[in-house]
Amino acid sequence: MKHHKVRTYKSAERLDRADQLAWKIASVAADPVRIEDEVAEMIGNRIIDNAAVAAASIARHPVVTARAQAVAHPKQAGATIFGLPSSQRYSPEWAAWANGVAVRELDFHDTFLAADYSHPGDNIPPVLAVAQHCGSSGEDLVRALAAAYEIQVGLVKGICLHEHKIDHIAHLGPSAAAGIGALLGLPTETIYQAVQQALHVTTTTRQSRKGEISSWKAYAPAFAGKMAIEAVDRVMRGEGAPSPAYEGEDGLIAWLLGGPKAEYTVPLPQKGELKRAILDTYTKEHSAEYQSQALIDLARRMGPDIGNLAGIESIVIHTSHHTHYVIGTGANDPQKMDPKASRETLDHSIMYIFAVALEDGGWHHEKSYAPERAARPETIALWRKISTVEDPEWTRRYHSHDPRQKAFGGRVVVTLKGGSTISDEIAVADAHPLGARPFKRPDYVRKFRTLAEGVIAAPEQDRFIAAVERLPTLRPGELSELNFAVEPSRLGAAPQRGIFDWQPDTRASVRRAAAS
């Protein structure tokens, strides 16, 4: 692994392409190293994981809306859309859009946390859509996703975005573009330009994850994937990009990140080095922000020791800077304590999550967020007794480069009304590679079947799993098997009409819908 120093350069200074981060990213993507069996296995696991959470969200409003937009763009070659028959094909950027929203809507798939944070599985929808459209093989797809994960993990390790209130999709656009470049075997020059274009158009603010969090949280990664496909398409046609996008005098680092004097270090494989970064990432057992995964496990462990929850005076969660300020009381978001808050907001409230996990002894991707669940008087009372504080030791462990030290949990101190205390701590979630029950292929399959129950017919589930088992040997044209179809009644109510549905005879109905 080579550690690349990245900083701003004045326009008068000469910075050769080979010394630019985007070129180094492109060089990694273009390097056709062999893919190890355990990496290919994990890629299959994450394809299953994505399909699982997409099945669970298939009828949710944001997913229905994104799918409605996508089906307005049929394409003869094209790509598949979750929930629809594989014989129906759509323009790849729109298929990636629909599938990306379905994958992210429940915030329930894989994660990687370092200097910044990410869901590397967000790379799969755009890369897979292009692979289906272009008739790529399973081997091509595995190689491409290994590259996309490698770039995503390297950027997340090296460059902190959230410190400067930039949303983490700014790392996703470049990694997806690099993955698509690897898929198609494009030259380094082409990938280099596409990476820069994708970075330029996917740098947005963190307001999508702050305050009153809306459905855009699910759309943002799908937007990055869609932009990455369009960027690669433009560059393949001979167009260029703002350059150098990272190091330029008016570029990302100079004005949106640390400033002209800032320096970052991004680790990337050297030429010929194997791409193994996906093995450093981890999925979720619970449908909630990743920093809450270990604390949900801790809550269900502590519950029996606490006994009667009505006897609790206060609960203090001692945790990392990130957990405290993003999903804890350090965020100073009143919405995080509001029983009428959106699902997306409750997903980012460790106070709510810990209270419900204590009461229920676990977590459910739908029931735990139901409005009637959040409105229970006893839950509200417990919820408002919970606070977080930053503990420097947990912050240090959160940022540690040693996987044995790296931690995403915390220490919980429960003070009872009589003055006695009960405390316990957890470093990583049970499903984490170093946790009590690390996820393996059977766990991913079980998660898929659990979330697909009542949504995807059993024979269709079996067919999909069998296709993933054959992933590295799927022939060109067979990647459409990495899709699932459901009965139309499972797809949710038709959304209001929009621009893509516009016909002269629908003008009045569209206006009526907008007015209502």
Structure in a nutshell:
The protein has helices at 21-30, 37-56, 61-70, 92-104, 124-133, 138-158, 169-184, 188-201, 216-236, 252-255, 293-306, 321-326, 343-346, 350-360, 371-374, 377-383, 392-399, 441-452, 458-469, 507-515, and strands spanning 2-7, 74-79, 112-113, 117-118, 263-268, 312-319, 386-390, 410-416, 421-426. The chain is of the alpha+beta class and 516 residues long. The strands form 3 sheets. It has a 4-stranded mixed beta sheet with strand order 7-6-8-9. A two-stranded antiparallel ribbon has the order 1-5. Strands 3-4 form a two-stranded antiparallel sheet.
Q: What keyword list fits this structure?
A:
516 residues; 44% helix; two-stranded antiparallel sheet; alpha+beta; 20 helices
Q: Could you explain the architecture of this structure?
A:
The chain is an alpha+beta fold and 516 residues long. It is 44% helix and 9% strand. The protein contains 20 helices and nine strands. It has a four-stranded mixed beta sheet with strand order 7-6-8-9. A two-stranded antiparallel sheet has the order 1-5. A two-stranded antiparallel ribbon has the order 3-4. The longest helix is centred in the first third of the chain and has 21 residues, at 138-158. The chain is globular.
